[in-house]
Specification:
The chain has 4 helices and 3 strands. α2 packs antiparallel against α3 and α3 packs antiparallel against α4. The protein is elongated and about 60 Å long.
């Protein structure tokens, strides 16, 4: 496989699949952080004002959204091409990347609506 040849659709399909699958790991980290800090009795995600939570949570979401979006776009570009001999990888990258982007947005909106910074 020639590295850096993104003009070929089979290489785009491979990168799409890999980037989309890699984006799952930081999403699971952000999801775990949100569940860990969720207080059922308050119905809020509680974190300290000067804690490590907010930059780590935002970083996990960003590290998940970027490769997920790239995987989604590369999968979309290479999915129906005649010269692509790996269409299954294209569709996998397309659907996994789109699903991870959707789940990231849902988690971001849920955090925005349920956040409660507690004073230190």
């Amino acid at each position: 496989m020639a590295v850096g040849r993104l003009r070929r659709y089979d290489i785009q399909a491979s990168y799409s699949c890999v980037l989309s699958v890699v984006s799952i790991v930081p999403f699971l980290g952000a999801l775990g952080m949100a569940f860990r800090n969720y207080r059922h009795d308050l119905g809020q995600i509680v974190y300290g004002d000067k804690s490590f939570f907010l930059p780590a949570f935002a970083g996990c979401l960003l590290l998940s959204m970027l490769p997920g979006a790239l995987g989604f776009l590369l999968g979309w570009n290479s999915a129906g091409q005649r010269r692509n001999d790996k269409p299954r990888r294209s569709w996998t990258g397309f659907f996994v990347g789109g699903g991870i982007l959707t789940l990231n947005l849902i988690l971001l909106i849920a955090f925005w609506m349920l956040r409660l910074p507690k004073p230190v």
